[in-house]
Amino acid sequence: MTPKEVYLDNSATTRVYPEVAEEVRRIMEEDYGNPSSLHRKGTGGERVLNASRRLLADLLGVKSENLFFTSGGTESNNLAILGMARRNRRKGNHLITTTIEHSSVLEPFHKLLTEGFEVTFVEPDPEGHINPLDVAGAVNQSTVLVSVMHVNNEIGSVQPIADITRYVKKKNPDTLVHVDAVQSFTKLYFSPEQWGVDALTLSGHKFHGPKGTGALYLREGVLAEPLFGGGGHEKGLRPGTENTPDIAGMALAARLSMENRKEMVEALQKMKEKLLSAIAAEHPWMKIIGPSPGNGAPHIANISFPGLKGEVLLHALEEQGVYVSTGSACGSREKKTSHVLEGLGLGLDEKTAEGALRFSFSFLNTPEEIEYAASAVNNAVHELKLFSTR
Ligand SMILES: Cc1ncc(COP(=O)(O)O)c(C=O)c1O
Fold first, then answer.
1. 73 touches ligand 1 (CB under 6 Å)
2. What is the pLDDT of residues 44-96, one digit of tens each?
3. CA 186 – ligand 1 centroid, Å
4. 6-15+261-389 maps to CATH 3.90.1150.10
5. Which of 74, 96, 259, 378 is deepest in the core (most CB within 10 A)?
C-alpha cells in the first residue's frame, strides 16, 4: 500500500514512541507528586526522577550524579557555555567554537563576546568537517572552553570528538570541552567518559522522547554558574520543579532507541543510501551537500537540485505527504541562507545552497516509505524542472 504520510524531518523532531506517550500519561495521572515534597506522593515523584536519571546515565556510560535535567538542547547548550565560561572566568577569557554550530551554541558565544570574552570561530572543510589540529591550534593558556558539536544537524557531518578533546587537553589540560550531542545520541558510537569531554548536551525529542526535555552531563568536579535562581533542584544548577512525566518519557525513549541499536542504525544507513541512489538514478545532476553518504551520520542527507528552490520542492513534496526540511528546524522559517551552508565556503555556490533539502530518518521509518518518498521527489523534480524551463 502507498503510504499517505512519510515523515522525513526527524532532525527537527521525532514522533514519540507509543510506549513513551503511555508512560508519560501514567505518571501524569498516578506519580504526579512533586519530587521535593516530603509526603508519599512526593517520594513517588522522586522515585521516578531517580530511576530516570539512573537509566539515562547507564545508557550514556556516566554516573547519575553527573547528569542534570533541563528543558532541552537549547537550555543545556546555554547552561554549559554561559555557565562554564562565567564560572571559570578567572582562569582566562578565550573561548573556541566552530562556525557551523547550532544557533543555541553560537548565540551564547556572541553573548560572551559582549561580556569581554574573546572567541575563535574555527571553520570546517567544504564537506563540513572540523580538523582537530585547527581547534588545538587555536588553544592558548587563557582558553577556558571549547565547544564542538558531534553531528551537524543540517548536513550530518560527524566531528572527531575524541581527537579534538585529546589534542585540546594536550595543549592546555585546563581547557574545558563541551559537546552538543543532540543529533548523535542513539545513532552513533557514544562515550562521553572515554572521549574525556567535560560537558555534553542531549535533547529528548530527537530520539522519540517528549519535547521540552533534555539533559546536561557535567564531568565530576566541573563547575558551571546556573542561569536561573530559585531553588535547589538539580543541585542548584537548574532550579525549577522537575518535569517528571516527560523526563521519564525521555529516559524510556533512550532505552527503546538503544535496544537493537546496531540493526536499527544499519537500517537508517540503508534507507539513506536507498533514497539517494534512487534519486541520483533519475536525476544524476543532484548534488550532495556535506559529507559523502558513507561518511556522514546515518540519519541525515542534504541534497540540492541547483536551479530549483528548496522551499518550492519542500511544498511540492508536502502535497504528496512527504515532510522534509530546507534547513535547521529553528532557522528554517528565516528566509536567509543557512549559516552552516554558508560556512562550507567555496565548496558551495549560491544556487546549490538555495536548492538545499534535508532528509532526516528515524527508527520509525520503513523501506516502503523511502521508496514512496524517492518517487515523490523524482516526480516533483521532473515537474518543477519542466515548469522552470517553460
Ligand atoms: C545540533 C542541535 N543542537 C541543539 C538543538 C536544540 O535542541 P532543542 O530543540 O531541544 O532545544 C538542536 C535542535 O534542532 C540541534 O539540532
1. yes
2. 999 999 999 999 999 999 999 999 999 999 999 999 999 999 999 999 999 99
3. 15
4. yes
5. 96
